[in-house]
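Internal ticket #5521
Category: modeling
Description: The requester needs a full-assembly model to guide mutagenesis choices. All entity lines are attached below as received. Residue total reported by intake: 778.
Assigned to: D.W.
Attached entities:
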Amino acid sequence: MKPVHVVGVGMTRFGRLEQSITELAVEASLEALKDSETLDSRFDRLIIASQNPDEFTGIGHLSTLMADRLGFVPSGATRIETGPSSGSSAFEVAVAIVGAGMADLVIVIGVEKMSEVDGRSASRILSKMMSQESETRYGATPAALAAMVARRYMHDYGLTRDELSLVPMKAHRNGAKNPLAHFQKEVTIEKVNSSPIVADPLTLYDCSPVSDGAASIVVASERIVEESGLRDRSVQVLGIGHATDHHAVQHRLSLTSLNATVQAVREATKMAGISPTEVDVFELHDAFSILEIINMEDVGIAPRGSAIELIKEGVTDVDGDLPVNPSGGLKSRGHPTGATGVAQIRDVVLQLRGAAPKGIQVESPETALTHNIGGFGNNMVVTILKKGS
Amino acid sequence: MKPVHVVGVGMTRFGRLEQSITELAVEASLEALKDSETLDSRFDRLIIASQNPDEFTGIGHLSTLMADRLGFVPSGATRIETGPSSGSSAFEVAVAIVGAGMADLVIVIGVEKMSEVDGRSASRILSKMMSQESETRYGATPAALAAMVARRYMHDYGLTRDELSLVPMKAHRNGAKNPLAHFQKEVTIEKVNSSPIVADPLTLYDCSPVSDGAASIVVASERIVEESGLRDRSVQVLGIGHATDHHAVQHRLSLTSLNATVQAVREATKMAGISPTEVDVFELHDAFSILEIINMEDVGIAPRGSAIELIKEGVTDVDGDLPVNPSGGLKSRGHPTGATGVAQIRDVVLQLRGAAPKGIQVESPETALTHNIGGFGNNMVVTILKKGS
């Protein structure tokens, strides 16, 4: 594969926002274009990730709509959907297109506008990604499945409620310093434990919110990086992995490990030629607090059953050896589903440039790993990125 | 880019079918797998095209669902959507992934199950691909836009109603010999002219139907073709082009030419190194009869305003010099939107193998071109394929 680089990033505030889906996508994209200094270049392709714009907003055919709005016509435009991992699946497609030499310059946009429908409708729309035969017909929701996973993990490894609360506390501690995060306030253990139960044992603070937002990345070939003089601030794609697991949770071998993560990490690290513990900063898909714990173990930075020890010891704090979700993660940064994977990559690109917000910049990271979940734990994309030089 | 081949194809009957969306996708895929003799191989990726399964069927996250159903877990799986050109956009992504060397074996599936909703709902769902601001809010539908285009073309070039009827007549003449076509009967000029008006001047027989169906293609690297001994029946991807036009028809330079076709053909022919008139067989996106005429001119096989002369002279018949839509096209084969682009490629692969149904096999074609439209004429994918040897 030819070398592939990220040369520009942009992101809107995440939260419950006034802007329309197209306005959000335009705002993030214009920032990425400005950041990459490629405003005058011809983009060969536009790749947009959105889980379900048709039902969340009534607007379809987002690929062409955005190519038109951004002035990219006649460049080819494609929408990618793999549930909440749509953002990094879109990045994977951009990497393939540039890696094959089919294009030199590709813009990736991730966007979701979820707050136009009420909470009940949002849950109904999101639940379509689950198994109808084995899950939704019995009233299961993503939160209900996460609760079942948390119960099993607690049973198997002795994790306590107070320990689990450390995950959202860390998320909010980091997110409080992220000016684009949906929630920018710290929370106490009492607050987490006493907030309303969503699905026992998970409370409101164990669950990522329904958010609006967009993020964007400019992906470029070696030629563009060479000609543009952007090498100093470019970030190289070292590895990418994409794997699935059985659609329904009940068909999987384990409740406390997501095998698709293990497989995607294997593929990405093999391509990158480094091991997970060598990576300097991580963004892991913590749609529910219990998932951050399981992800750490599946990614391979914590032994099975012991991720909570690393969290307690501060190893995953911003100033720890293995910083996880300095952005605040999905819990605090927010989770506009189609945008999340793109936002993760945007955030680690800023980390690698040393340009993350004050208080959440990791010290001189050289490599980063993002991990994005689609469905309930069955469609994972993992990327490994390296600082340019 | 590394060489990319098609080594297997499959397709269900198109029409109003009993099977569910997953049953259709499985049927087409199993046929493609059997055809490619790769049933025991590990597929690296599954790419599925579907315009709007969530709203047409209530089933989402089709990528993982199909990876599970087909036994491809843990291979990565991705859904692609560009409106009715989703099928060939999915093929483009598969070509990029294999072309980059990220995978050796990729299955592409195109599927749409449209008949679970009533006709009015289907029209509402499909119309989301149009511009809300400039089109749907004024009550426009795809058929209404096509009628406007037809009126303008008739005004500019003197095309008559009787002449336009030759297009669906040819489609049905070919489709009558295609055992998988939605409609398998010939129609007379009286039948076309006297059928109900959908949008004046277009009658029912000028419009492709709402169909259910699936098609599938196995895409493979040079290594697989070499090792499998499938070279004799493999088809090579010579070129691929993807382009957009302004979202709303009113913002385009012309009503009687779709510029995205011109751009996509330019890109595909440049990559393939051949000119359109050198191609031996064509599948062009005739969602409405007037589009076959315009497509012929935009693709570059008929001078502007004169496509109808070629049709009259039989040049685009199965035994003509430039056979267009020997399958029956969207009009007669049917148009399950996400499946159409994949079905077009499947059909020309059979043509290049000399394995098309009796009566619609073109004589010894060496090269083929497919042209697939997304939105109302604003997201085009063109592929050029060559017989293996």
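Resolution: model delivered.
Comment from assignee: The two ends of chain A are 20 Å apart (CA to CA).
Ticket closed.
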